[in-house]
Design goal:
With 147 residues, the chain is mainly beta. The protein has 2 domains: 80 residues, no CATH class; 30 residues, no CATH class. The protein is 6% helix and 31% strand. The chain has 1 helix and 9 strands; from the N terminus they run ββββββαβββ. Strands 1, 2, 3, 4, 5 and 6 form a 6-stranded mixed beta sheet that branches. β5 and β6 form a beta hairpin. The longest helix has 9 residues.
């Protein structure tokens, strides 16, 4: 299967904030892979690339997932397969998502769920919910229902 993606990858390589120490996750285009399994990345000095895994020759043209560490090196933690990139482009997944303003935003994992409503309501659902604070925890509300 052959994919032809004539697109500019610069928007894809923009950094995403990862942690408080200002480390950043990035996507880097893999230009080639050395015999040792370390990829050569577009726009990155090969001397500062640290790879925790070996990359194969089949990853050339894919996007490496890396973390730009605050000290300077780039730590690679994996790659996005080429067929997934092509599918994302074909489905328009790289365009901004537009969600109707009247529907809640939901974050789900297993049987737990967090819902954020446009009118300011927040609903937390789960089997066992605990709230912990290292500092002050304030609770304000017109009605607080317990049990």
């Amino acid at each position: 299967m052959k994919y032809d993606l004539a697109t500019n990858l610069l928007p894809l390589s923009q950094s995403i904030d990862a942690a408080a120490d200002r480390s950043q996750f990035c996507l880097h285009l893999i230009l080639e892979v050395s015999d040792a399994g370390v990829p050569v990345l577009a726009g990155v000095n090969p001397a500062i690339v640290i790879s925790g895994i070996q990359f194969g020759a089949d990853t050339v043209g894919c996007l490496a997932i890396g973390m730009n560490l605050a000290a300077g090196p780039v730590l690679l933690i994996g790659h996005v397969p080429f067929h997934a990139i092509a599918r994302a482009f074909s489905q328009g997944a790289l365009s901004p998502a537009h969600k109707p303003a009247d529907t809640p935003l939901s974050l789900k994992c297993g049987r737990s769920e967090l819902r954020l409503y446009p009118d300011g309501r927040v609903r937390i659902l789960g089997d066992d919910i605990s709230i912990e604070a290292l500092g002050r925890m304030g609770l304000k509300g017109a009605v607080v229902e317990l049990n």
